[in-house]
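wait is this the right file?? whatever heres the structure
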């Protein structure tokens, strides 16, 4: 295992699985977003499993509230982002990571550098500082840890690449105005773990 694959972006543009509606605050969408985006930051792919501190991940407004206050509580305008990316993005309007950050448009190098193959991907990497010294170092560090764990410590590897223990049971959540994509609940990570179909690692 090279560890490179943990920083590889998805093969396809993201299609929303959930559609909760009617919550009065952004924070109430959080558990849906955790499941929707597989417990990782949509920008840098940092995982909850790597940062066990409360408050490190946020429900982030893709279109800033300052510019689109009407979308403040619109689930489709929310993504799951780590504290660092959230702080860098702030009120900037950036290319859509769900459409732009794909395996075919961003390549990961063994030294931690990301190579953008489209103009939009390059712009997003630049705006979110995803090739900064710190970002490259973080990727290199995690790849090294994952490689070492794969050889010497399989329980550590499982912890690094597994799902969080506290998967949200979305069937117990009842958004005030319903869920316009109800089929997604049955495909949630919690439901798949109950059925025994959730893979050990992601
Ligand atoms: Zn991030």
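ok assuming it is, sequence goes like this
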């Amino acid at each position: 295992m090279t560890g490179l694959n943990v920083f590889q972006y998805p093969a396809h543009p993201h299609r929303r699985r959930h559609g909760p509606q009617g919550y009065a605050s952004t924070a109430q969408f959080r558990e849906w977003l955790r499941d929707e985006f597989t417990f990782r930051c949509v920008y840098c792919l940092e995982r909850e499993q790597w940062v066990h501190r409360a408050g490190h991940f946020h429900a982030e407004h893709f279109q800033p509230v300052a510019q689109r206050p009407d979308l403040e509580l619109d689930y489709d305008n929310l993504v799951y982002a780590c504290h660092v990316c959230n702080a860098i993005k702030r009120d900037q309007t950036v290319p859509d990571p769900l459409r732009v950050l794909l395996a075919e448009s961003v390549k990961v190098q063994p030294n931690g550098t990301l190579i953008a193959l489209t103009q939009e991907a390059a712009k997003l990497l630049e705006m979110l500082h995803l090739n900064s010294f710190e970002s490259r170092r973080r990727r290199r560090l995690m790849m090294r840890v994952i490689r070492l764990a794969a050889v010497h410590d399989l329980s550590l590897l499982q912890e690094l690449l597994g799902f969080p223990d506290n998967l949200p049971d979305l069937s117990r959540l009842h958004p005030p105005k319903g869920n316009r994509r109800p089929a997604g609940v049955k495909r949630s990570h919690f439901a798949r773990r109950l059925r025994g179909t959730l893979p050990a690692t992601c």
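Residues 41, 43-44, 46, 81-82, 84-85 surround zinc ion (CB under 6 Å). so i think its the right one actually
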